[in-house]
Write a structure and sequence with these properties.
By secondary structure, the protein is mostly helical. It is built from four helices and two strands.
């Protein structure tokens, strides 16, 4: 039996919040994307942490919902 981790919208937002990104669970993914991109523009030193998070979530045993993948792609 293969166990697969699933990254959904709630998980994604929780991980961004843990990094200190200015997002809330109530925001849509479009709002989250805009907020994080704005945050990264103001605080570019956070970019490696967001990129590492995205890489971590795309590991072999993790399934990322397509709408989450679109937002992660915007982070570069």
């Amino acid at each position: 039996m293969m166990i697969v981790d699933l990254v959904d919208e709630v998980d994604f937002k929780e991980k961004l919040i843990a990094l200190g990104a200015p997002v809330t669970q109530e925001q849509s993914l479009t709002e989250v994307q805009a907020a994080v991109l704005s945050w990264l523009q103001a605080y570019p030193e956070q970019t490696p942490f967001v990129k590492d998070l995205c890489i971590e979530m795309q590991k072999d045993n993790t399934t990322v919902l397509p709408e989450i993948s679109v937002v992660m792609a915007a982070f570069g």
